[in-house]
From TrEMBL:
InterPro entries: Beta_hexosaminidase_sua/sub, GH, Glyco_hydro_20_cat, Hex-like_dom2, HEX_bac_N. This is beta-N-acetylhexosaminidase. GO terms for molecular function: beta-N-acetylhexosaminidase activity. It is an enzyme of class 3 (hydrolase). The active site is at E295. The keyword Hydrolase applies. Residues 123-464 form the Glycoside hydrolase family 20 catalytic domain.
Length: 530
């Protein structure tokens, strides 16, 4: 009962006993995987799992890099195409142990029944966005979350580091970004504009970032940073007002929604963000860098003589083209440095730089348009993969936001949009990514509730075949939830929140939901013309 479901999984005669006499032999190329597995099994094995006769072996074979074969009998053998495959084989082995083995205080011995597994992923981008801008999550919480992604064989953590409500990464050249931009007075708690009156903040030092990136790399997770621009930048403008259009001081934003305060388009502002990117590129080896591009309101550019002058100089007829011009400049900057720009699907509006990757979020129309225009695509559809959306219709959901997105809805998701099936452009779909936006998620415990078990369903959709088997998934999940329980994950029960998981939310009024639906419809209608 492995989650995500392996390609092939069979019983074999015999069994393996994991106890303090177990030994581990690994190919030198797999030393890091071996070190990780030693750590995970330490409570059972007494912390040693020394090299020896090799009751557990990790070796390389002629397979794709993320593929593995796992055989459990009197011995455990993982044969993998590369370190990632060996890591996934080792993760599968852990799931064959009883759930109690996931407890930090586990003590063996544990018996594993004879098993043969053949496995490899369907998609190479199996991602999760974590918004640490709206609510800061401590480094410890981020590392724990990386372990949970890796348990589900996800391999991308998209860290949404900057937004109107917070700037979370130390930039040495511009210290006010975190001195000012990482803190806010209070936060909006729900639909109706109620405020909590509670100061909030925090940021990662560059040392913290290095630690997060290295920790993730050992677990075969690439951390992809997002510096959102030119919209969603009020925290940066609060720190450095010269980046904005008004010339008057602003505070770090306390409410959410799509704000009017956006970057100006002066050369000095472009240079400022290029300098920011120089430090970001130094910290994140990821080939992909996300520069947002979403939800940039053009009100201030329309009203700004400087922005209008810039448009005239460039011969641009519309503010959308100004945004496109700006994104092209940053795309050139990243391309010259050997990285690829990823942007939300708004970057399609007004023309898109050739190497850019589109993160399609407003439904799937952006994914279809981008793939047909020859761009690589990550399917991040908000109608299937936004895990901040409420999980049931009841008003006791904490906090009822968005439209209802159940576990079953997520499991039904297919990364290749229907319109692309049978079309060679489908090869442009690198994979998919769920999103955990945290306007209303202010703790790791609440994050657990929103992410699990929907994230397990998502993992099946990006790892396994296109066919869905809901009854089979339910059985696997029944075996999986005790593992999450043993790790201490406060997941949502099928019948809703436990008493202490309820939060005094702001009820989703019917008129708010209608407004929400109208907004979704309006967004997707402008995508239809691309
Ligand atoms: C987004 O949800 N604004 C990408």
């Amino acid at each position: 009962m492995i989650v995500p479901k392996p390609v092939r999984h069979e019983s074999r005669p015999g069994s393996f006993v994991l106890d303090s006499r177990a030994t581990l032999n690994a190919d030198p190329a797999l030393a890091e995987v071996a070190a990780w597995l030693r750590g995970e099994l330490a409570p059972v094995t007494g912390g040693e799992l020394l090299p020896g006769s090799g009751t557990i072996t990790l070796t390389l074979g002629d397979l794709p890099p993320e593929a593995y074969r796992l055989t459990v009998g009197p011995r455990v053998e993982v044969v993998a195409g590369g370190p990632a495959g060996a890591f996934y084989g080792a993760q599968t082995f852990r799931q064959l142990l009883p759930p109690a083995a996931f407890r930090r205080a586990a003590t063996g011995p544990f018996t594993v029944p004879g098993t043969y597994v053949e496995d490899e992923p369907r998609f190479r981008w199996r991602g999760c966005l974590l918004d640490v801008a709206r609510h800061f999550m401590t480094k410890h919480d981020v590392l724990r979350f990386i372990d949970l992604l890796a348990l589900h064989k996800l391999n991308v953590l998209h860290l949404h580091l900057t937004d109107d409500q917070g700037w979370r990464i130390e930039i040495k050249r511009y210290p006010r970004l975190t001195e000012v931009g990482a803190w806010r007075r209070e936060s909006q708690t729900g639909w109706n504009g109620a405020m909590d009156g509670r100061p909030h903040g925090g940021y990662y030092t560059q040392e913290d970032i290095r630690e997060i990136v290295a920790y993730a790399a050992q677990r075969h997770v690439t951390v992809v940073p997002e510096i959102d621009l030119p919209g969603h930048t009020q925290a940066a403008i609060a720190a450095y007002p010269e980046l904005g259009n008004l010339g008057t001081p602003l505070e770090v934003r306390t409410t959410w929604g799509v704000g009017v305060n956006v970057l100006n388009v002066e050369d000095a502002t472009i240079e400022f963000f290029q300098n920011v990117l120089d430090e970001v590129l130094e910290l994140f080896p990821s080939p992909y860098i996300v520069l947002g591009g979403d939800e940039c309101r053009k009100d201030q550019w329309r009203a700004s003589p400087a922005a209008q002058r810039r448009m005239a100089e460039l011969g641009l007829g519309a503010e959308e083209e100004l945004q496109s011009w700006l994104i092209h400049r940053f795309d050139d900057y990243l391309t010259e440095r050997g990285r690829r720009l990823v942007g939300w699907d708004e970057i399609l509006e007004g023309g898109l730089a050739p190497g850019a990757v589109v993160a399609s979020w407003r439904g799937e129309l952006g994914a279809v348009a981008a793939a047909r225009h020859g761009h690589d695509v990550i399917n991040c559809s908000n109608t299937s993969l936004y895990l901040d959306y409420r999980q049931g219709p009841g008003e006791e959901e904490p906090v009822p936001f968005g439209t209802v997105l159940t576990l079953e809805d997520v499991y039904a998701f297919e990364p290749v949009p229907e319109e692309l099936r049978g079309d060679p452009a489908a090869a442009r779909v690198l994979g998919a990514q769920c999103g955990i936006w945290t306007e209303l998620i202010d703790s790791s415990r609440h994050l657990d509730y929103m992410a699990f078990p929907r994230l397990a369903a998502f993992a099946e959709t990006v790892w396994g075949p296109a066919e869905r088997d809901l009854a089979g998934f339910r059985d696997r999940l029944a075996a999986h939830l005790p593992r999450l329980e043993a790790i201490g994950v406060e997941y949502r029960r099928a019948d809703g929140p436990l008493p202490w998981q309820r939060r005094p939310g702001v009820p989703g009024r019917p008129e708010d939901r209608e407004r929400w639906q109208a907004k979704l419809d309006a967004w997707t209608s402008n995508l239809r013309t691309l």
